[in-house]
């Protein structure tokens, strides 16, 4: 029976061989459930230079590889003719790669996974449409029926998914022995799983798929919190085979089990019954999944969490005790999302990404056991043995906090949107290079080019970074900040900076080239990258007009990543001419802007990458002139770029902020102005002024709350032109009386192995070593965050009766902040400060 076309959204992808042929497995969510698409008779594809054809042919014959050769009208980036290599199986494909590498024969694009190429060349970016000949089959386990569709076909589609999520968190001892597993599900419902197989479609040279337009409406996912469920599985048997006493009155959501073995079996069963689309957690892959995998091995159990009953696949990124690669996990038909990684991809920034800190800042809620409350693990072990009810509530609360963060910040919508825009997997960590490749490579093929391999380390040349002007230090009365909207993407759009345009310019007359930097020149014909950016730019403008913050932010992140990708040795399209032509054009833009403002009689006191800081002091201009100044500079750039380059300007300057007053500090120990550090009172039209700090102690995680509190109040006094003497005297007096002891904690992350600190031992390492020694176990290690206080006997973890070294805090936390601004505002007050220091 021929099935009607359906639209769906891609959950997971996998490739493998079956009966000597390549198979692509796609799990897709659609309106009538989750479907397993098994696509057969596809080929693994790569390319090679025509000059190597004879040698590769002999190699394939000798190794009995089933590889087809095909002449193609494609050219390498260095101008050589290439041909295509098509393998029936992944086994032969990987064997070919190994043999050619051993003989130093270069293959092109061989590192692209065949399943990724298959989707990329069809412009499938999450959404797809599928059809085929249906054959129903029965299947065991929780899946009631299977629809096998032979001769299945897929193409671009349009679909807005509604995903169910299951938040999972584990509690265990230091050896990984499981105490409990918490689960909190939202939008949970049971889907019928459907299997589709037998797809067959064309090779690269026969494709005629068109790139999809960017959809700015209907792109948000429906991730309802309705139909929520909650469970905590509790292991009632301790690691020493002593049972935990089961108390009365356990929460209704508790499932009490008699062993770790039963705990894991029940976990398998619950995941299958709840059947979530997404599994979410916090530090989930690095910690929870790793512990679960080890516990399953220890108990002889397979974690059959896949929608087809298949086992969870875990790839450990540790090598010789070092985390050299990201840990990866694959569950058939279920996407695993780690909250920390998703938030980092979405450019969130926190002093600490601990669940307690993020939940506190976003939700105003905290974990039931505070991470700074002494020995957290000892507390959990105590609760496990003596107060199961409290540990059960704690475990579930962690799951709920993760669910709430995902919901409030629309993190699922973000990953869906990113996939719709770029085609990268929903669970992809990082992925800027993959996103660029997905968007760019199919167009390069259609223009007749095959991409190069990664540049070798010895051939890599660093490109200049963003331009940072020398600053004019001091307190300025009025400063206007002008910002170029997405400067680097707009430079790429204006000057046609593009890998293929760089190649095409080589054969053009000078008048048909656009000049770049470091020898870079670009074709004037509409380039691939500028076309992609134009679409993204228009989509973002529409998203902003529609108040779609998720889509707007996702597009901004993608566009801004393109410069970094082109300057990265991890991108196959890297060329120093590309990245340099972007950043050095940015230098030119800021310098031209500076000259323009100076010709107006204004002083440019600072500039950074895409922003210009203009002082109105001693000029005829007022803050009300800011918008008009921006319009005039845009008009000037329009004329200049047309006259000098015969191009349409796509850069746009915006007035961003009015600071009054504004402080630019000096570099410590120097009279030169600092960079990337300033403070100012931001003026709002219909609201109170807002004190803003950039790069100062207040916004840095390695300064104490005492320093941050002191700096905030001191700058408020200075900006209000008030006396500071009484405040400083009061702060020092209260500090010495112990009234600020709760504000003296330093927080640092341990970035190396503790034993590797030999020549110098920073305070946080001293505190960690002491805590490990006193606790007789490794409380702190590489990657740990530590909180400590500088006491009279050195750095230590906070403990009762610890006497802080107040002189240290005055000299290292209070005085540097005061000196930076009082040396300019009130040297007299600074002398008073020095007098108080001598009294200690």
Automatic annotation (TrEMBL):
Instruction: Indicate the segments forming the DNA-directed DNA polymerase family B exonuclease domain, all copies.
Output: 109-358
Residue ranges of every copy of the DNA-directed DNA polymerase family B multifunctional domain listed in the record: 440-816
User: Which InterPro entries does this UniProt record tie to the protein?
Assistant: DNA-dir_DNA_pol_B, DNA-dir_DNA_pol_B_CS, DNA-dir_DNA_pol_B_exonuc, DNA-dir_DNA_pol_B_multi_dom, DNA/RNA_pol_sf, DNA_pol_B_thumb, DNA_pol_palm_dom_sf, DNA_pol_type-B
**Is this entry keyworded Nucleotidyltransferase?**
yes
- EC code: 2.7.7.7
| Taxonomic superkingdom | Bacteria
This protein's record includes keyword Cell division: no
Give the record's GO biological process terms. DNA replication proofreading; SOS response
Keywords assigned by UniProt?
DNA replication, DNA-binding, DNA-directed DNA polymerase, Nucleotidyltransferase, Transferase
Q: What reaction(s) does this enzyme catalyze?
A: DNA(n) + a 2'-deoxyribonucleoside 5'-triphosphate = DNA(n+1) + diphosphate
Family, similarity comment: Belongs to the DNA polymerase type-B family.
Record's protein name = DNA polymerase
Question: Native species of this protein?
Answer: Psychrosphaera saromensis
């Amino acid at each position: 029976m021929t099935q009607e076309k359906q639209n769906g959204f891609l959950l997971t992808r996998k490739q493998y061989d079956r009966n000597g042929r390549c198979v692509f497995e796609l799990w897709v969510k659609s309106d009538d459930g989750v479907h397993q698409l098994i696509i057969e008779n596809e080929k693994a594809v790569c390319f090679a230079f025509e000059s190597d054809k004879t040698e590769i042919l002999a190699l394939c014959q000798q190794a009995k590889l089933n590889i087809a050769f095909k002449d193609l009208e494609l050219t390498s980036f260095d101008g050589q003719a290439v041909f295509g290599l098509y393998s029936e199986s992944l086994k032969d494909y990987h064997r070919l790669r190994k043999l050619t590498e051993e003989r130093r024969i270069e293959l092109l694009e061989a590192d692209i996974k065949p399943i990724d190429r298959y989707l990329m060349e069809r412009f499938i970016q999450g959404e797809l449409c599928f059809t085929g000949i249906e054959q129903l089959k029965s299947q065991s386990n929780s899946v009631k029926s299977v629809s096998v569709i032979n001769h299945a076909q897929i193409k671009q589609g349009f679909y807005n998914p509604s995903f169910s999520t299951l938040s999972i968190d584990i509690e265990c001892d230091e050896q990984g022995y499981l105490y409990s597993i918490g689960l909190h599900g939202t939008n949970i419902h049971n889907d019928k799983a459907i299997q589709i197989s037998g797809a067959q479609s064309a090779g690269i040279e026969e494709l005629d798929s068109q790139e999809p337009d960017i959809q700015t409406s209907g792109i948000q996912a429906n991730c309802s919190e309705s139909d929520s469920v909650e469970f905590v599985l509790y292991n009632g048997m301790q690691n020493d085979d002593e049972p935990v006493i089961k108390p009365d009155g356990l929460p209704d959501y508790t499932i009490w089990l008699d062993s770790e073995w039963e705990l894991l079996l029940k976990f398998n069963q619950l995941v299958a019954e709840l059947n979530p689309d997404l599994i979410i957690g916090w530090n989930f892959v690095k910690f929870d999944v790793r512990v679960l995998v080890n516990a399953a091995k220890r108990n002889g159990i397979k974690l059959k969490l896949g929608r087809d009953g298949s086992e969870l696949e875990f790839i450990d990124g540790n090598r010789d005790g070092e985390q050299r690669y990201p840990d990866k996990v694959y569950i058939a038909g279920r996407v695993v999302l780690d909250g920390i990684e998703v938030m980092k991809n979405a450019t969130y920034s926190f002093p600490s990404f601990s669940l307690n800190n993020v939940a506190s800042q976003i939700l105003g809620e905290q974990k039931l056991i505070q991470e700074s409350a002494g020995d957290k693990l000892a507390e959990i072990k105590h609760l496990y043995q003596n107060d199961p009810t409290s540990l059960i509530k704690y475990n579930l609360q962690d799951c709920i906090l993760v669910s709430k963060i995902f919901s409030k910040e629309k993190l699922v919508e973000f990953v869906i949107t990113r996939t719709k825009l770029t085609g990268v997997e929903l669970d992809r960590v990082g992925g800027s290079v993959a996103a660029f490749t997905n968007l760019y490579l199919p167009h390069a093929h259609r223009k007749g080019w095959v991409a190069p391999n990664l540049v070798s380390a010895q051939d890599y040349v660093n490109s200049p970074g963003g331009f940072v002007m020398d600053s004019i230090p001091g307190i300025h009365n009025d400063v206007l900040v002008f910002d170029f909207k997405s400067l680097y993407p707009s430079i790429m759009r204006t000057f046609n900076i593009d890998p293929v345009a760089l190649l095409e310019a080589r054969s053009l007359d000078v008048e048909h080239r656009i000049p770049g930097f470091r020898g870079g020149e670009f074709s004037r014909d509409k380039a691939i990258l500028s076309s992609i950016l134009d679409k993204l730019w228009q989509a973002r403008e529409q998203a902003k007009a529609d108040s779609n913050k998720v889509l707007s932010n996702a597009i901004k992140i993608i566009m801004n990543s393109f410069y970094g990708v082109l300057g990265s040795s991890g991108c196959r399209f890297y060329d120093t001419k590309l990245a340099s032509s972007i950043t050095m054009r940015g230098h030119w833009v800021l310098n031209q802007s500076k000259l323009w403002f100076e010709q107006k009689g204004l002083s440019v006191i600072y500039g950074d990458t895409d922003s210009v800081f203009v002082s109105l002091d001693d000029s005829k201009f007022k803050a009300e002139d800011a918008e008009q100044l921006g319009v005039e500079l845009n008009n000037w750039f329009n004329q200049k770029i047309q006259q000098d380059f015969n191009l349409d300007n796509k850069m746009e300057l915006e007035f961003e902020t009015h600071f009054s007053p504004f402080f630019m500090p000096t570099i410590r120990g120097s009279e030169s102005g600092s960079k990337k550090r300033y403070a100012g009172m931001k003026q709002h039209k219909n609201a109170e002024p807002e004190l803003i700090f950039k790069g100062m102690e207040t916004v840095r995680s390695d300064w104490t709350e005492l320093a941050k509190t002191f700096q905030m109040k001191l700058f408020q006094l200075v900006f209000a032109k008030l006396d500071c003497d009484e405040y400083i005297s009061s702060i020092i007096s209260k500090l010495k009386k112990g009234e600020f002891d709760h504000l003296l904690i330093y927080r640092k992350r341990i970035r190396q192995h503790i034993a590797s600190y030999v020549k110098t031992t920073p305070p946080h390492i001293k505190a960690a070593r002491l805590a490990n020694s006193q606790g007789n176990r490794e409380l702190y290690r590489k990657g740990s965050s530590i909180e400590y206080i500088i006491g009279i006997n050195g750095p230590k973890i906070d403990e009762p009766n610890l006497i802080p070294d107040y002189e240290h805090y005055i000299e290292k936390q209070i005085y540097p902040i005061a000196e930076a601004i009082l040396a300019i505002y009130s040297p007299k007050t600074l002398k008073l400060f020095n007098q108080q220091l001598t009294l200690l």
